[in-house]
Amino acid sequence: MTTPPNPEPGPLSQSVNVPLVAIIVTAITAIIVALIDRDGVRLQVSEEGRITATAEARATTIAETRVATSAQAPSSTSVVVSTPRPVPTMAPPFASPPPSTISVVVPKPVPVVVGWKPDYPGGPGICIDGCADFVPWEIVKAEIEVKVLPQLKEVSAGSHLGLQDFQGKKNWVVTVTGPNGAIVGNVFFGTNPQKNYDYDGLIWIAIKKGSSYVYSAFQRFSDGSYRRG
Prior knowledge:
Blueprint: H1 11-37, E1 41-45, E2 51-55, H2 58-72, E3 111-112, E4 114-117, E5 125-128, E6 133-136, H3 137-148, E7 160-166, E8 169-177, E9 183-192, E10 198-209, E11 212-221, E12 226-228
Antiparallel strand pairs: 1-2, 3-11, 4-5, 5-6, 7-8, 8-9, 9-10, 10-11, 11-12
């Protein structure tokens, strides 16, 4: 069997093959352009189907992108917060200095001895420690009435002291008068009525109870307090 010879392509087949090749080349070119254009490369296709790649500087594309982005982005607003300056405090021109702490040492009270002095210049009273100090009668009277008599159960509330003359001696006797005005006792400064009025420096209170007296002794201290002797 004889194989027929390959027919040569006629004019029709040549006209069909040329456009098909152009279509394929155009499609491939479009794909390459799409892929390469992402990296900033633009392609130019010649009329003959040749592809010429013209690479632009990537820095230019990036710069254009930044310019466009900056033009679209809202500008930032700077907020300036001012802090008020502290107002200096000034002391008044005549401000008094702050009070200073002063330590005051209060001496411990010590016992003293007393003696009645009816003829002291300026009025009666008691001498302290041999008349190194003197306490007028008005002060002594108030001290005994407030600090001593309330300690004695034999003395009624409201009793007070008084002065009497004795055998021509003015203000010689100190009396205790009850609230009813009757004299109920006597006060002796420095002398002990139970021992023939010997001097001992104490304060003796003698309160009448029936036909006898109840005696109580007190010691005066340097702070004006009185304690039982």
